[in-house]
Design brief:
By secondary structure, the chain is α+β, with helices and mostly antiparallel strands. It contains 6 helices and 10 strands; from the N terminus they run H-E-E-E-E-E-E-H-H-H-H-H-E-E-E-E. Helices cover 31% and strands 23% of the residues. The strands form 3 sheets. It has a 6-stranded antiparallel sheet with strand order 1-2-3-4-5-6, with no helix packed on it. Strand 5 and strand 6 form a beta hairpin. It is extended.
Length: 205
């Protein structure tokens, strides 16, 4: 009986230690999602931007989901720190994020520095009109804040003429372009009789 009591006593101690370890892991894992997360600013339409000092990165939240810009595309997650998954074809990002990460239209210097380094090269390729208007002002934060921020203060940037991002598949961005109809050249083969004239249509490449 004593041996059985010692046997079950050892298992009880081991079970208690395991339970305490699991509780400790659970307690320390809860604050991980919110520790070090700093609210940066509101983008608009219910989308907020947060800064993650541990990752030196920004994420955007909307309706319980979080979006991260990585390798020229959007990833989403249910938590600040992931795990991050590529957007499926049936998922649409919030309207302020349809044109890529929002440009720094608020007086928040860390976001300006991050955006200029991480996103500006992508804007130069996919938003050439926007880039021609504002790329010179990206040289200095003071100039940007004085010239560009007042322009977008009352008119959100994503309502301007920019290429919307649709069907973000596999974390990559596909830009939608309107398909233009190719011009058609009509050639009339002359014939003395009007009813025997032939019209040949050729499409230009």
């Amino acid at each position: 009986m004593r041996e059985n009591g010692r046997f079950w006593g050892k298992w009880a101690v081991l079970g208690l230690i395991s339970f305490l370890l699991l509780c400790g892991v659970w307690v320390f894992s809860i604050p991980r999602a919110t520790a070090g997360v700093e609210f940066a600013f509101s983008v608009g339409d219910g989308v907020n931007a947060y800064y993650l000092p541990a990752m030196a990165d920004f994420v955007y939240s909307d309706d319980g989901l979080y979006y991260e810009w990585s390798a020229g595309g959007w990833l989403y997650s249910g938590d600040y720190y992931g795990p991050w998954l590529p957007l499926p074809m049936t998922m649409v990002v919030p309207s302020p994020l349809l044109y890529g990460p929002p440009p720094p239209v608020s007086a928040f210097r860390p976001y300006f520095i991050w955006w200029r380094a991480r996103v500006a090269p992508w804007y130069r390729v996919y938003h050439p009109g926007w880039w021609l208007r504002h790329h010179v002002d990206l040289a200095r934060y003071r100039i940007w804040r004085a010239r560009v921020v007042p322009v977008y203060r009352n008119r959100p940037f994503y309502r301007w003429r920019m290429h919307p991002v649709i069907r973000p598949v596999g974390g990559r961005i596909r830009i939608a372009y309107r398909a233009r109809r190719r011009p058609v050249r009509r050639i009339i083969v002359a014939h003395p009789h009007p009813l025997r004239r032939r019209v040949i249509a050729r499409r230009e490449r």
